[in-house]
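Quick question: what would this complex look like in 3D?
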Amino acid sequence: MSLLWPNATVWPGASAPSTSAASAGPIGPGSQPVGAGGLCLGPGQHFGAEFRRFSLERTKPGKFEEFYGLLQHVHKIPNVEVLVGYIDIHGDLLPINNDDNYHKAVSTANPLLRIFIQRKEDADYSAFGTDTMTRKKNVLSNVLRPDNHKKKPHIVISMPRDFRPVSSIIDVDILPETHRRVRLYKYGTDKPLGFYIRDGSSVRVTPHGLEKVPGIFISRLVPGGLAQSTGLLAVNDEVLEVNGIEVSGKSLDQVTDMMIANSRNLIITVRPANQRNNVVRNSRTSGSSGQSTDTSLPGYTPHTVQNFHPEEDDSDEDDIIIEDNGEPQQIPKAVPTSESLESLTQIELLHDSTQNGFIPFSEVNLCHSAGNVSMEYEIHDPDKKSLEDGAIITL
Amino acid sequence: MRRFLRHGHDPVRERLKRDLFQFNKTVEHGFPHQPSALGYSPFLHLMAIGTRSGAIKLYGAPGVEFMGLHEENNTVMQIHFIPGQCQLVTLLDDNSLHLWSLKQRSGASELQEEQRFTLRGPPGSPPSATQITVVLPHSSREVLYLGTESGNVFVVELPSFRLLEDRTITSEAVLQRVPEDYRNRRSFELVEALREHPRNPGHILIGYSRGLIVLWDLHNKRVSRHFLGSQQLENLFWQKDGHQIISCHYDGSYAQWPVSNDDRQLEPLESKVPYGPFPCKAISKIYWQTTKNGPPYIIFQGGMPRASYGDRHSISVVHGSQQIAFDFTSRVIDFFVVCNADPAAEFDDPSAMVVLAEEELVVIDLKSAGWPAVHPPYLASLHCSAITCSHHVSNIPLKLWERVISAGSKQNSHYSDMPWPIDGGTNLAPDPPQRDLLLTGHEDGTVRFWDASGVCLRLLYKLSTVRVFLTDADPNDNMNPLGEDEWPPLRKVGSFDPYSDDPRLGIQKIYLCKYSGYLTVAGTAGQILVMELNDEESEHVVDHAEADLLQDQEGYKWKGHERLKARDEPVRFEPGFQPFVLVQCQPPAVVTSLALHSEWKLVAFGTSHGFGLFDHQQKRLVFVKCTLHPSDQLALEGPLSRVKSLKKSLRQSFRRIRRSRVSSRKRRAGGGITGEVQEANSKFDQDALQEMELAPIQRKIEARSAEDSFTGFVRTLYFADTFLRDSSRHCPSLWAGTNGGTVYAFCLRVPPAERRMDEPVRAEQAKEIQLMHRAPVVGILVLDGHGTPLPEPLEVAHDLSKSPDMQGSHQLLVVSEEQFKVFTLPKVSSKLKLKLTALEGCRVRKVTVANFGSCKTEDYSENNLAILTNLGDIQIISLPFLKLQIRYPCIRKEDVSGIASCVFTKYGQGFYLISPSEFERFSLSTKWLVEPRCVVDTQEITGNNYLHNKSGMEKATRKSRKSGRLMEHALLNDERAAAPVGGGDV
């Protein structure tokens, strides 16, 4: 259950987290409201997830029952039993099930209180993390027996074929707070991608002081287009990467060609023009949960690049063949031969390093595992050989 | 451990790559774009051409070429060789002088800039005071005389460019002894001409624009003779013996002045207006060339009657009663006369006239009767008619080569057989490794065959497809309607004729089979001609067939141009490639792809509507396939905006004529004003640029869809003998790739040779592949069981290629603008891919398979893909594993026409247009490298006493070096060795 606002996959039918509405200010000692974000997963027959954002009075949080009712009301799921969790200052997902931990949650919200709701029958209790000892063991055992991790995924969202993703924010754990990586899923929808880019300039801090450098910016969103409907991209956002490739030094036409070439599975990293809605990561003071992910940070750069190496991204591999005027079929992949071993080993390397460098997502601090959201359903799709985010064997 | 080996870092492979690949731009073929100056050294027998972009190019004997570029990129106004030296001085339009030298390094000569200099007047003086109008390098090689707008002549020392102020010839000093009334009429005069006395280096002739001519005594620093001309002066020339000077004037007259003992000459001996009596244009340059037996040659530029022929670019040659005004199709930049340059010789005895026009070089043989033109071995005008496509064929069999040359020689019978008169320097380059043909298709419906084996791109043969069609232009409509008795006696010379009669005739695709001599060309109006080489003249009817690519799809209306009308009656074809079948596509859209299989006798063609297969043996259409998306109206109706109507084309032609005829005669007229205008223009440009920044360009990001326009456009066609249906039986197949990322494969049944005429060729669609990224398919290739590309048709039959491996499984390589993909055959499953655009943001513009040989290991070679991207980069990608080997920046990405014109050879070389008239040749291979390597010998002239240094030994070395040549040549060499004085010809 790694879905977590705002690092969340947005499913059709779920309201997108409206970035412009995220107005929770810093929590002062006074009567300022607590911003609370709620995410609800697939109630009833419809699978899906949705976000809600509302405010609470910090000084008068009220009782847990009232809050529970409020959540049910906000998400319009009055008769569904749910588990409520929140993210504490260390990024741990902790349950809210009585007045005490509810008050604790409200008082520690900084500035937002992120609430996470699961349907009880689907709930994954192991997602709640307090016992660091257990987790360490799991980490260890996962490293030693990597298969374990693949065979027994702890997190189940739902069956992936029941819904279709349109966009997601990914890699929040490895990106600077000022950046946002957005994945747009074009295939299967009739919606146009619906945005335009332009040349521009941005100011960078360099060893020689501030410098104006050329950059690529989103210039326009087409109403009703995919880009606009996700709410994750906005005019004047600076485009930093396209599917893992930095755009600096590339011309507008080059970036256009790269985006179109990746249009069926476009991952763009932007520096949002509006920096107020960024994920504010919790301050990682030493001690307490000991769950600091700082240890994994040195290794993050190569991961960033490899994560979206387009060669490993196979989502557009569905070329079609019609044999002898028969029915169109997808072109299958050839059985790997020795010559393609090289690229295979690379992916394995990547997989290994992911496990070693990062605590496996199912065990970690949820805030940092959120980047792996989109791969969840891939893993459970038995037809696909996905290993990692966008890292599918490409032969 | 294998897993730790990342590709691209294998040291063995890296070393091998260094032995295989190397990028060089080796030579520029063709005619320099926008030439602006001409220079000639009678001593070195080298010619120099300067351009408006600041390039200078030196040419001598075929293969002897040098190139230099001024850093400033300013227009080269004048070029002067220093007499008796391997040095030259250039004057740019920013009034700077540059000294260039030919220096020897490791056996070959190189052109280097040595010095630069800008003449500066005293502070406060107007810029015109030092604006250089004429340059005279003195035969002493120690000084340059610089005539200026102020009328002063400055003297600078060489090679230091130190101004010798005490030797300045001021206009005051010159005017001292001029009669008062004459002086008053002329307040301001610029120096128009400077000429050294041919017999007495101590005297120079100075001509001023208002007509005054003086002979200046350099030792006594005074005027020794005055010639009080009254007409505005254009130029001067010395008679060889120094007894007479000839002046030419703005009113179209020229005058002879005797150099007598009289201090003052008030009137010329004789004055003539050759094309009078009506007002004439200026004569801007004149040569007076004496001959041993007979009257002199008087050669002058301009002077045409202003009203009737004022727009002609002419040079007249008068020799006794013979007179011809050579009429050039583009503006004359400059000219010189090749003559006996020995200062001691009694007569000039001119042999040839070399004319640099704006668009071509024309050389006239003055020794042969009728003064025929000489076929230049280099500086070919590639753009006689605009180039519309190119096709390169490597390693031509000798037999075909000889037949093409023989066909071409019959077309060149009107040329003089005089050896090329500019023969300085020695070509050291090894003989070309093989015979290569470059075929260029042109807007006027011609195909030109060029010898592209070596440094000199030489026209071998010209093929015209026009005669097959009925066009508005009457082929008998002579460009020169004037009879022999007409006055002025104009004669059209040169081949530059950019005015296309009918744009539909334009050639779009060419394919030549070098083994069979079959050639197919396709054009703008959907016409496909199949030809074969015939050594005899023939008169026959060309069969024609129609290919309706829309088949039964109805209700569409083509709004583009009409198809060409074919002639029904027999047509006479000269020896060479003669068409025997014409296929016309309906609708008559531009043919966008073409393939020929000479063994199966099949030709495939594609347009924006679909593709077809034609059996040229039985002259029967095998099938057509419509690739058009039903909603694609734009492709259906014809890209109206891109189609030039006949009317528009004519209008443009006239506009071009007018533009080229705008006289820019007065090179320095109002220099100040142009400066201001330029400044204003640049300011305007800047403002416009800023405005653009305010409203930046946007790019739409959208996935391609099946409904996009021109998805049916057929980009590539390919014949292959491969396993299309099952892995046990291979068969002929035809592959087609479209703009929308679709690949069609047809299984062909070609009857065996003995029943080839009896049974029809059959075709059946076997596969259709849709690439989901929908990028245009630009290349299709089948790799055999060893991963080697299938050989060309007839290659195996001629023992020039190994038979393809038919045991292992074949693979299909599909190259789209964005990706390279390898699929297995016959069951199509994806095997490998390289996503170029997703990684780098560049798109494939050109792709070819090239064979790269190792420069270290004699028998090692490998096949790779060479690609050119839309960014102008060249990349080499390995086969069959699709690993990027190396990348070189080649063409500026803004140079769209350069990128579009690029053509690769089969052995890792390539050509692209750097201007409408010039091909840049480049090489990616370490093994095949065609570049100029030549030497200009400077050792022969030693010391300062060159004037007397005509030792027999020196002559002997010269003779022995070139002893293999013709007697005539030896004679010329003798003259040259003894001819160090008398340079500064221009």
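Answer marked as accepted. The first helix of chain B runs from residue 11 to 20.
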